[in-house]
Design a protein that fits this description.
5 domains, 23 helices, about 20% strand, histidine kinase, EC 2.7.13.3, PAS-like_dom_sf, two-component regulatory system, HATPase_C_sf
Length: about 675
Amino acid sequence: MSITNKDKNPNGRITETAEELYENAPCGYVSFLTDGTIYNINATLLSWINFKKKEVIYIKKFPELFKIGGQIFFETHFFPLIRMQGYIQEINFDIVRKDRTSFPGLLNVNEIPAKGENPLTYRATIFDITDRKKYEKELIAAKKKAEEDSHAKAEFLSTISHEIRTPLHAILGIGNLLNKTHLNEDQKEYARILLLSSENLLGLVNNLLDLSKIEAQKVKLEKRPFNLKNMVKMMQQTFKVKAAEKNIDLLVKLDKNVHQEVLGDPVKLSQILTNLIGNAIKFTKYGSVTLSIEHVETSKNKCLLSFKVRDTGIGIPKDKLEAIFQEFSQASYDVSMEYGGTGLGLTISQKLLQLHKSEMKVQSSEGKGSEFSFDIWYQVITNHVSKKDKKISLKDREIFRSSRVLVVDDNPANIYITTQFLNEWKLENESAKSGLEAIKLLKKKHFDLILLDLHMPKMNGYETAMQIRSLNFIKQPVIIALSATERGEINYKLKKAGMNDHVPKPFQPEKLMEMLVHYLHNPNDCIIEKNLYLPVDLEEELEDLTEIESSNNSEVYPNIKQASFNVSKFVKMANKNAHYLDKFIKSTLDALVSYNKEYMEAINKNSEVMIGDLIHKSTMSMFYIQADHLSKIMEESRILIATEDCDALVLKQKSDECSAEFRKIIDGLKNLKANEILAHLD
């Protein structure tokens, strides 16, 4: 059979046979019998696998063209599939060359029914997808790099925002304190500008951090009861001064059918409304800004509420309505220059609404104003009694006068600002510049509440809290963390360290006061989660331990230093007290038994997160017994699980090694007797 083309060809007739088309097709063709024997194969596929035709025809079987995975598929799945549907479509297998190297192939197989004397056979097409696989790997690598870059960006923004928030805390604190002193008119204006500029900078930092967290999918909706009417009232009070400064009316319209008590995320709603109202006031020179909330419908115990923020400002050109929701974008360059801002507020608001399964809508007329609107479903609450706004009442003043607060912070400016507010509220207070200094103070006198900075050198806030919880107080103090890091990111660590609550820096004095009032009135709310951190009396934790640790004389210090661990820190801290030394060893032993179980559970579940949490949780125990090798193996296990193509055999070997190390230390600690150790030291 031949194919002829004569269409205006200057060279005359061109003839191509079907055989030529078959042999030189851009894909491999192979035909085989029901037992897999190959009876035909084209030149293209032969060139790919570097065989001659005589080496293949009626000699090789079809599965032999594949690596072991393809051979297993042919033996187990091929015939059931082909009989059920008559074909197999686009399956990836590695094709083996004569020299045993391979290339990725895409396989399609069709069943050729028996006809006359011809038996049932199969015809396969094979495509060389080496380039495609290369592109896929490049795409995967690019995606991984993009994710790593995104994570690095988020980490950078988190770090830099913390570094900026710390001095901002001092600036805002001093500004608030200045406002409470006797100032002349010029000084009041200076203080007002100082506070306004600091708040604007804080808003920018918060926006950048929020955006990075949303992109990293770290933001989740909370569900807690809140009073919508109170929130709206608070929003009105927040923007009242700014609106008055521009002679703009700030109006609020609350539909009488709106349920006041609802279950949802008040922080996210407040953030969205703050962005919209702030923008509306910024871009309005005359007229008004109106916030309206309407009840749309009720379904079972849920209600749909419509929120609208309308202004009589400069408006937005029609061709810019979509651009304003893009990151760092505003309606025009002139607008950015005249009114300022970063163009992040609407982006963040839209992304927060997407978490609510909603979206922002905008209607605008240039020169006349704009209206931004959105709808959110909330669960209705009928029997919730909301907390009243806290003010310093006579009862509060009485509890303040009878309470003592300890402020722990390595930054003198932070200590000064915090203690100034405590002094103003007539709260007796003292300060410590380190965790070690705080523990020494706590041993001498009782404090009802501790304000504890998390980021301190040598002994950070988490370690300090753990040591405080290990002290045998008749009544444990309330511990409130102070940090520029948001609570959602550190909540787990706070609980594990035994802290009760968290105040983000820079804080509003009123917020801190509300928290102090609450915990001093309700000390029973000081719920401490029992954890497995090593309870240790650490007066001299950071002092020189060389006296014991540097000694390698096992006759003088029997069993103190073994291959897998070293309890010399315990001996030093026990100060020749057998009771305390036994307690230290027993606590560590119990913790390690639990950690070993958690480790095996994490391995069985192949969970990097569980092992990561375990490594964090066990840090203090490993530090005190100097089990560096065990810590190293656990980290290596975590890295193995995190690896995309984790080798099960290698992971099994690593987990066996880790379990053996656990057993060594556990058995070693069981054999330690405090009296025997101390007897050799005398």
